[in-house]
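Example record

One chain of 68 residues, shown exactly as stored in the release files.
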Amino acid sequence: MIEITVNGQNSELEDPLSIDAFLELKRFTGRSVAVAINSVVIRRSTLEETLINEDDMVEIVRLFGGGL
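Predicted C-alpha cells for this chain:
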C-alpha cells in the first residue's frame, strides 16, 4: 500500500496509479476537473501517463459554469 493525500484527506492506493485511472476509480470520468500533484498542475494530455506515487499530495478541482 502507498499513502497519498487527496484534497487534504489521507488515502491509500495498492500501487502507483495513473491520474486517469485514479479519476475513473473515484468516478470523476466525464467531468471537467483540474488536477495538481505536489502543487504542480498536470496537463490534461498527460493524465494517462502521469503516476500518483507514495506521499504525493493530489488536489482535484471540479470546474463548473455559472454567473450572473
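Notes: The CA atoms of residues 20 and 62 lie 14 Å apart.
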